[in-house]
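Allow me, if you will, to draw on your knowledge of protein folds for a short while. I have a record of one protein: its chain in single-letter code and its fold written as discrete structure tokens. Kindly check, if you would, that the fold set down in the tokens agrees with what the sequence suggests. Thank you for your consideration; the sequence and its tokens are set out here:
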Amino acid sequence: MSLKEIARRAGTSVSTVSRVLNSENYKCSDPELEKRIWQAAQELCYIPNSAARALQKGENGNQTAEEKACLFDIFLTRFPSLDQDLFFRELYDALKKELLKQRCLLGRFLTVPDITTMMQASTPFSEDGSRADGLILLGKCPSELISPLKNYYHHLVGIDRNPTDFDYDEVVCSGTDAAVTAMDYLISLGHKKIAYIGDCSYEARYIGYYQSLINHNLPLDYSNIYPTSQTRQEGMQMMQVILQKKELPSAIFCANDSTALGVFDCLKTHRKKGYIPSVISIDNIQGSQETKPMLTTIDIPKKEMAHHAVLLLLDQVRGGHKDAVRMELPCRLIVRESCSWCAG
């Protein structure tokens, strides 16, 4: 299906459609328009190559299984919406572009209720009767769903900061390493009383937090630990709790940028006189460059993770490997303005 038809359905120009779908670094100024373009592209099974589209439709009788365009569903494992964790929204956007680049089809976007309904129906088929060739998991998959998902989808790949026990192929950027990098940076600035806001249930970033304290012979003070599900709203709420304390931490380590944005929301309206904590987090989402002060964070390479995840899934489909593969990519510190030397 042509870009012209997508443009007609989305109510925009062909050039805008081309930029949204095919330009890796293009960011549409109208989110609703971008959503309509992707929806139209998905409905029309758009692939940026006429020969590939013909193969997908079965118009070439000599095509092989390897040539057929693959259809991949995407499963957001922890949240009901991408809006609750902007890291996964940016990762999802990177996956959409990577799937087009590899001439694959974007299938259904699924959350836990969708997966539950699908299992009850005992079918991994889409509404139009097409069967997904594989599933991309965004985030840590609930353990009770792993085995059923393997029965429904013969090909799985996960993208996360927490590795599994080689339950399926995965592309990871170690949350533990990212947390240690963040903590080591704060400690190098003289901070010793560092609060943690984030998930504490067997979470790699929490493990990195207390490992770094141990490595630097600093006490693990549970009064400085604030468990959350790592959303912006909870970041704001926990910062309000911190501000009520008599002894305030000199630094705040947030498990993700969304939480840090909530911390900044709170500090805009609920400051304590003379109290300006250093704030650091993990992910390096687009919004981390737009805060005041700009957020110091640990970069998780989202585009690269999306790229390797799609390639791993395609290799599975084509019989390239059977044993579970784990690919780990490095994180890196992005120093901006939100961290400073500890005064006391």
